[in-house]
Design goal:
Growth Hormone, Chain: A; 1% strand; 3 domains; mainly alpha; two-stranded antiparallel sheet; membrane; 500 residues
Length: 500
């Protein structure tokens, strides 16, 4: 137990924070019904968490190097667990979204320190085993999320998907406090607070603009005010980072085609592979009237196939250049998501299966290779920054994917409902996105057709993004050797160890 205690403590934390990305998906219709939430509200339940993770990962890693990685991990774990309690007790959607943001803050502290803690705890062959187990647990969390979320939502209630983190968090906190040892990076480093603030505003304002456009249309002044705020924040971020002695992201790395290609690939992968999943969950439950457990099982082929393929690809594709693995994975994702556009008003859940299987192959190929590939594009001294950057862009891809698909769905569904002669098609489209079909036989038929068309539009765009990103990665990335060849020893600077 003593030898593998650090691995258990870090892996349990990873399981908690990563499963909370997917466990909420099948609970969205129930959350919406219980709180009278619009689809925009439900988008924020997912994106509040993803944006906090994305915005704070790099800053949390820098802070941990200074004050101690174990300390930051424990603080993040306590905050995540406390925020889970707030989620479970939330009286309304606003409180739930706020608590989800706090969850993301805690999750960022945990995720930013996980690799470094494992790197300090293990050496040689044991380190390889530890990273392999940690990666497998991370993959399993995505596979189990929809199923566990469905079971808890249907048999206990949606609040249980958050409250289950309380005993898990207590056990993890006990193990982490006893098993992990403190370690540090560069104690004289600085936390790039201005850069983190500008990045947070840029990402948050852009996501707000997209989600607001889905509910109010592109003519809304608030949408364009958010777009302007995001653009100004991007400019401020670039100015701050170019002048900072210790930038959150060294902008000179973007001149490296391989580095930039992998960042774009990671962002597009999450956008294409997962941006539409919430809409599919709403379709299964709100339109086809399946239960939450059934919806979780119906969506699980993607994650299950991804888990199996990721385990096999590490052995079978050793020696293959990462541009072919990541680029090929994106092409599979693009093709698989485009297969989902076969859904029509008369389809049942089996129409999703071919697309889910092909998409799962792509995720299993590409996702595990991103971290190793990006480390191979930068000097060892910048490995931590590069690893944090690719995780940040992946979370941004998920957040933007959820927001963009919501806009696409609403525009198409409103157009279809208007053509069917329904009164107030905009309001009807918003209700439909939350799983509430129009009353009456004619209203239900129009709703089924409109939802299928909106979903098809959303997945078509996601599929095209995946295909385009796959081609771009193949053209840009020139890292030689296998994706796994980036030395894991370089991924974690050898930390100085202090007594517990």
């Amino acid at each position: 137990m003593r030898k593998w205690g650090p691995l258990i403590a870090v892996s349990l934390g990873a399981f908690m924070l990563l499963i909370d990305t997917t466990i909420v998906i099948v609970a969205l219709p129930e959350i919406g019904r219980a709180n009278g939430s619009s689809y925009a509200d439900l988008q924020w339940v997912m994106d509040g968490y993803a944006l906090a993770l994305a915005a704070l990962l790099l800053g949390a890693g820098a802070l941990a190097d200074i004050v101690g990685r174990k300390r930051v991990y424990l603080v993040g774990l306590v905050l995540f667990t406390a925020a889970s309690l707030l989620c479970g007790l939330a009286p309304g959607t606003g409180t739930l979204v706020g608590a989800r943001v706090l969850q993301g803050v805690g999750g960022a502290a945990m995720l930013a320190t996980a690799i470094a803690l494992l790197g300090d705890a293990y050496q040689g062959r044991d380190r390889g085993i530890a990273f392999g187990v940690w990666g497998a647990v991370s993959g399993a969390s995505a596979a189990l999320g929809p199923i566990l979320g469905g079971l808890l939502t249907e048999h206990v209630g949606w609040r249980a998907i958050f409250l289950v983190n309380l005993p898990a968090g207590a056990v993890t906190l006990f193990l982490a406090g006893r098993m992990l040892r403190e370690s540090y990076g560069k104690r004289d480093a600085r936390v790039d607070v201005p850069g983190a603030a500008a990045f947070t505003v840029a990402a948050g304002a852009a996501t707000y603009a997209l989600i607001r456009a889905g509910g109010h249309g592109w003519s809304d002044r608030g949408v364009w005010a958010a777009v302007a705020a995001s653009a100004l924040a991007v400019v401020a971020f670039c100015v701050v980072e170019s002048r900072s002695a210790a930038p959150m992201l060294d902008l000179r790395l973007l001149a490296n085609r391989s580095f930039t290609g992998i960042l774009v690939g990671g962002m597009a992968m999450q956008f294409a592979a997962f941006g539409w999943v919430a809409l599919a969950s709403v379709w299964l439950q709100g339109v086809l009237d399946h239960g939450a457990v059934q919806a979780g099982l119906m969506l699980s082929p993607l994650a299950v196939v991804a888990f199996v393929v990721s385990a096999l690809s590490g052995r079978l594709l050793h020696g293959v250049s990462p541009r072919w693995i990541i680029g090929g994975g994106l092409l599979f994702i693009g093709a698989g998501v485009l297969l989902l556009s076969r859904v029509d008003a008369g389809s049942d859940w089996t129409a999703l299966v071919p697309g889910l299987l092909v998409t799962g192959i792509g995720v299993g190929l590409g996702a595990p290779s991103l971290a190793g590939a990006v480390l191979g594009t930068v000097p060892p001294a910048q490995a931590g920054m590069a690893g944090g950057a690719v995780n940040t862009f992946r979370q941004l891809g998920f957040a933007f994917g959820v927001a963009v698909t919501g806009v696409l769905f609403r525009d198409k569904a409103e157009s279809m409902l208007d053509g069917a002669g329904l009164a107030r098609p905009g309001a009807a489209a918003e209700a439909l996105a939350g799983g509430r079909v129009a009353p009456g036989a004619a209203g239900r038929a129009a709703s089924e057709s409109a939802f299928a068309s909106g979903l098809d539009t959303a997945v078509t765009v996601c599929g095209l993004v995946g295909l385009a990103a796959g081609v771009l990665v193949i053209l840009l990335v020139r890292t030689s050797g296998p994706a796994a060849a980036a030395p894991r020893e370089a991924a974690v600077e050898r930390p100085r160890v202090a007594a517990n």
